[in-house]
Amino acid sequence: MEKVICALWAPEGESRSDYAARILKTLPAALKAAGASGIRLNVRDATVDPATPLNQQWQEQQQDAVAQFWLPSANAIFRGPVDAVLADHGSRFEAWLVAESTIIPNADHAPQPGQRTWGWSQASFISFLPEQSWMNSVKHWHSHHARVAIDTQSNFEYVQNIIVRPLTDNAPAYGAFVEECFPLEAMTNPYIFFDAVGDEEKFARNTKDMTDSCAGFIDFAKIDIIPTSQFDFADLDD
Is 229 within 8 Å of 137 (Cβ atoms)? Predict the structure, then answer.
């Protein structure tokens, strides 16, 4: 099995909230019928509007949703039905083959079939530092930053997806896709985000440690970080 990450763009004139509502109704079943499993959608709906100031943008226009799923093979000659479904659900899609590493599984607020997962999900398309080798960037990310992200934030789910290769011709050249889930209050309260409510010293330490660690492998000029609502459809596999 191979995992695929797809960025989706809404048709011109359709609001993100309307687009989110539409694809939640039809895309999961369509992907399942085309051969996908373990389907998850991340959408930019009204619930995550308060987190807009946390958005970081490289792409113009920026992604409106993300589809995550597994295929027996992501090879182009077998992916046609899935590509057709994705093309039918937006103005544009781009896809990447990834290798998933679950750092923090969501044990505290487990997704419920077809329902919005508790909290909110920060979906991050990141690029590695151009002046640093791919190997050293991954080493820093996996061997140092993962621990920092656990220790300095209130994340209750943390999944790293290293990009193996693009699957579409115009896919932006990211190095990884990361999904982290936080309490809703973390959208507007940085003390909650950095797990330091009522503790100024811890807040200063956590923000510095996180900023310093990110600077060790991320190209901040080429990232897209978007707030999303997570909807999991793994129940379709039953």
Answer: no
Residues 6+ apart with CB under 8 A from 87: 93
Look at the pTM and tell me if it is higher than 0.85. Answer: yes
Q: Each residue of 68-112: pLDDT tens digit?
A: 999 999 999 999 999 999 999 999 999 999 999 999 999 999 999
Amino acid 168 reads T
Residue 193, CA atoms < 13 Å, CB-side half-sphere: 14
CA distance 23 to 29: 10
Q: Give residue 90's identity as a one-letter amino acid code.
A: G
Tokens representing 134 are 């791919």
Name 68's Cβ contacts closer than 8 Å, sequence gap at least 6.
Answer: 3, 4, 5, 6, 38, 39, 40, 41, 42, 179
Q: Which amino acid is at 31?
A: L
Write down all domains in the chain, each with its CATH number in brackets: 2-237 (3.30.70.100)
DSSP state of 16: H
